[in-house]
Design brief:
- Chain A folds into three domains: 2-67; 79-176, no CATH class; 183-393, no CATH class.
- Chain A is 75% helix and 0% strand.
- Chain A has helices at 2-19, 24-43, 48-52, 56-67, 80-109, 119-143, 151-171, 184-198, 205-229, 243-266, 273-287, 299-321, 324-346, 355-358, 360-392.
- Chain B has one domain (5-111): Winged helix-like DNA-binding domain superfamily/Winged helix DNA-binding domain (Arc Repressor Mutant, subunit A, Orthogonal Bundle), CATH 1.10.10.
- With 112 residues, chain B is α+β, with helices and mostly antiparallel strands.
- The chains are: A mainly alpha (393), B alpha+beta (112).
């Protein structure tokens, strides 16, 4: 029995080493040594990993880094424990989206039964998903042992819960008297900042944060502008400002998005489909301000088809790329979904004061959709990558 | 300071080289020698990357020989380059040890 297990484990180890840069001669050398170690382990009646004194991934990483001077591979997770942690991470990510959904449903359908706001509502709305999390985690732990929560999982849970607080403050801003402090942009910045602080400092989230801050400032300007000049109805009419100021103002949000992606394409040579699509769409948005060009506005709806197309293309590409490109693709998908959200928002009734009163629900629905989208896409990209990796084994 | 793996790693490499420098020897014997010296936690999984590193650097060479009681064994032997490395380590480590001792003694004097 041990022989079979050891053979399978050695196969995994060799595949892992090969995948992380060892050539065939080096792998052959290691293989001989591992077989010897497996015999020693058998003689001692212990599994190979016990004989090695560490899990096979740790052993291989040490061997790659210290023995062969190769870079230590990034951990993508393969063991049961890591699968469990990944599940917890995914679920914690969805926790950001789930509470607003529940809050929204309770807001609409259950207002009669629930306390209108305050601790009771918070406990009820947060308690249900939290309970779900605990039950699900316990169920997973029964199926396959996941060990104690490690620091990273705790961070994901903290991220989920703190993000929840941000979304809660955003949704109930009117009731607790913090209107225009926690608006959609501020909430997004807070979520990204939380992700940056708690989860991943190494990825390029600084860029996401920067674009969110820029758009936040634009939004603040927009708010002041509308309060001063817009008509108090649903028509997109701006009064009392010269036409050129209206055009300059209208350029700010789509212009920022366009510039952001054009810089990425031209200077960094990042020709990913999303960058091209968003640069093009935001450019169209800017051009729409030119009188007489409004009939081309329907072009925007084509973007939804393009989005689906590019997601499929990127997923296929992720399968092929398998390793280093996967993280990059996941990152671009994330930022693209985020900007897609901004784009949708900025494309709404842009110049009406009443839109603020009516679109609060839309805003947080967008946050929800964007967050779910980000997590789902990242999950599928990574799953796709793992299947590609496993094909080696 | 609970995680002493980085500190151990550098020292362990020199210790293994020193053991090999005494006699041509094989992995299990090196492990036994280390354990007898007090490195109780050292397992194959820790020693093996060190041996691979020493071989790849050219400090150590090996020859596979038949074992009377089991699979073939790799016998490791120090090279000329390895001897230079060992001398260099002994000099560097000796100086470092003196400096560290000075800090410790200085601390004890201040406490008194």
């Amino acid at each position: 029995m041990n022989d079979v297990n050891n053979d399978a484990l050695i196969g995994k180890m060799l595949a892992y080493l090969r995948r992380n840069g060892l050539n065939e001669a080096e792998v052959a050398g290691v293989r001989g040594d591992l077989l010897q170690m497996a015999e020693s382990a058998d003689a001692a009646h212990v599994p190979l990993e016990t004989h090695l004194g560490k899990q096979y991934r740790d052993f291989c990483d040490d061997l790659l880094e210290f023995g062969f001077g190769r870079p230590r591979p990034a951990r993508t997770g393969d063991t049961d424990r890591e699968r469990g942690l990944r599940f917890a991470k995914m679920f914690a990510g969805f926790m950001i989206a789930l509470p607003p959904l529940i809050l929204g449903l309770t807001e609409i359908y259950w207002d009669f039964f629930l306390p209108r706001f305050g601790i009771g509502r918070l406990l009820l709305c947060d308690g249900i998903p939290l309970l779900l999390l605990i039950v699900l985690y316990a169920a997973v732990a029964r199926i396959r042992p996941v060990g104690r929560l490690d620091a990273m999982t705790m961070r994901w849970l903290a991220f989920g819960l703190l993000s929840h607080v941000v979304v809660f403050l955003f949704v109930f801003q009117n009731r607790i008297g913090i209107e225009y402090v926690i608006d959609v942009y501020m909430a997004t910045i807070a979520l990204i900042a939380l992700h940056f602080a708690l989860i991943d400092r190494r990825r390029l989230n600084v860029e996401e944060l920067t674009i969110a801050i820029v758009l936040f400032l634009a939004f603040r300007f927009h708010e002041a502008f509308v309060s001063r000049y817009a008509s108090a109805n649903f028509e997109s009419v701006i009064v009392g400002v010269p036409w050129w100021l209206r055009i300059v103002y209208g350029i700010i949000v789509p212009g920022t998005v366009c510039a952001f992606y054009l810089v990425r394409i031209v200077r960094l040579h990042l020709f990913d489909p999303f960058a091209i699509v968003f640069a093009g769409l935001s450019l169209i948005s800017v051009l729409l301000l030119i009188p007489g060009i409004g009939q081309f506005q329907q072009v925007r709806y084509t973007s939804y088809l393009l989005m689906a197309f590019t997601v499929v293309v990127d997923l296929i590409y992720a399968r092929i790329a398998r390793k280093t490109d996967t993280r990059k693709i996941a990152y671009y998908l994330r930022i693209a979904v985020l900007v897609f959200f901004f784009y949708l928002y900025s494309a709404r009734d842009y110049f009406t004061r009443n839109s603020y009163a009516l679109f609060t629900m839309y805003e947080y629905t967008y946050i929800m959709i964007a967050t779910v989208g980000i997590n789902v896409i990242e999950h599928f990209v990574r799953s796709s990558s793992r299947r590609g990796d496993d094909a080696h084994v | 300071m609970a995680d002493d793996s980085q500190l151990l790693r550098g020292v362990l490499e020199a210790c293994v080289l020193k053991i090999i420098a005494r006699n041509e020897t094989y992995g299990y014997r090196i492990l036994e020698t280390l354990r007898m010296a007090g490195f109780d936690d050292i397992r194959d999984g820790t020693l093996y990357p060190v041996l691979v590193r020493l071989v790849n650097k050219g400090d150590v060479s090996f020859e596979t020989k038949a074992s009377p009681i089991g699979p073939d064994r790799k016998y490791y032997r120090i090279t000329e380059r390895g001897r230079h490395e060992l001398e260099s380590f002994e000099t560097t480590f000796g100086t470092l040890r003196t400096k560290v001792n000075n800090i410790w003694k200085d601390g004890e004097r201040r406490e008194q």
